[in-house]
Design brief:
Radius of gyration: 20 Å
Helix content: 10-25%
Oligomer: single chain
Distance between the termini: 18 Å
Bound molecules: zinc ion
Length: 342
């Protein structure tokens, strides 16, 4: 095997450079070396490359964490994964021994090492993973679908905290890539109606294609009135995918309903009249990363339950990454597949 590879390395201050770097070597006995087939761009990558950064990554790190690839080498302690297996990964490696890991909450581990943020990631020809974070996927699952495993696993972790029954109403606030996946998943779960509030025209269009029953432009229409017209009491479940619409969620959800806070916006600080939550008997749920939800996510992908291909708007090479990040920043793209071999 050649010893060098191309990789997109974060240089700090919004800079990303395509460099020739050493192919990673197996370091621990349970390491797995993967040849990357595709890695999609996540909102986190966009935040990392903002100036000032909306999310901190370690300069010198290869970015990218939503990947699929083929195993080309395994350490001597690897037992479940073989050379030639096609895999996806949980990019948040947990320690397994801290007090959260011991409570089966590895997503809340005190020593998480995030791939593509602090440890070299998937915008490269090869990536090193640990076996515990590596999951096999079918050989014939298209790469553009397999790359959704990680965001879908995070969503499944949130959705299993909700109890959405067929025929219940759901309001999705924000239809970025994850919001659109959520619309598809809610429809597949039998929710009805699924109402989407989103300011971007392109994204409202894709929300309709993804199965949304009603889309609302909250800048030009009254979300409150449309929700009232289409649900008897207010939505049974309100999902804030933006990280900044908690107040709106509390106002709109029906009494006794549920709010899932999925999106993250560290600078949002919503003022809430706490009594509204008490008197409406609202359940407010937070959710963070993926916990034991990869098997379900992979099963959904392999069964072709969701029309995820509709969310893939672009494909690019490593060299085109920066250009694509600009498109995402401008809201002109949804999900972008990066092919490191291209
Ligand atoms: Zn991500
Ligand atoms: Zn831990």
């Amino acid at each position: 095997m050649e010893q060098k590879m191309r990789a997109a390395v974060f240089q700090g201050d919004g800079k990303l450079e395509i460099c020739m770097v050493d192919i990673p070597k197996l370091r621990k006995p349970d390491d797995v070396l993967v040849q990357v087939e595709a890695c999609s761009i996540c909102g986190t990558d966009v935040h990392i490359l903002n100036v000032p950064p909306g999310y901190h990554a370690k300069p010198g790190t290869i970015l990218g964490h939503e990947l699929v690839g083929k195993v080309v080498a395994v350490g001597e302690a690897v037992t479940q994964i073989k050379i030639g297996d096609r895999v996806v990964c949980n990019p948040n490696e947990y320690c397994g021994v801290c007090n959260y890991c011991r409570r089966n909450l590895p997503n809340l581990c005190e020593h998480i090492i995030p791939l593509g943020i602090e440890e070299d990631g998937g915008f490269a020809e090869y990536v090193r993973l640990s076996e515990c974070c590596t999951y096999r996927v079918a050989d014939d699952l298209p790469a553009e679908i397999a790359m959704f495993a990680e965001p879908l696993a995070c969503m499944m972790n949130g959705v299993k905290k909700l109890c959405v029954q067929p025929g219940e109403s759901v309001l999705v606030l924000g239809a970025g890539p994850i919001g659109l996946m959520m619309v598809q998943l809610m429809k597949a779960s039998g929710a009805s109606p699924v109402i989407v509030s989103e300011t971007s025209t392109i994204r409202r269009g894709i929300a309709l294609e993804s199965g949304a029953d009603i889309v609302v432009d909250p800048q030009n229409e009254s979300l409150k009135e449309i929700v009232a017209e289409n649900t008897q009491l207010g939505p049974d479940h309100v999902l804030d995918m933006t990280g900044g619409l908690f107040g709106q969620a509390v106002e709109l959800v029906r009494k006794g309903g549920q709010i899932l806070l999925f999106g993250v916006n560290a600078s949002a600080a919503t003022e809430i009249a706490q009594s509204r939550i008490t008197q409406k008997e609202i359940t407010v749920l937070g959710t963070w990363l993926a916990n034991a939800s990869f098997p379900a996510a992979i099963s959904i992908l392999e069964s072709n339950l969701l029309p995820l291909e509709r969310l893939v708007t672009h494909r690019c090479s490593l060299e085109e990454l920066e250009e694509m990040i600009l498109l995402l920043r401008q809201g002109k793209a949804v999900k972008i597949l990066v092919d490191p071999i291209k």
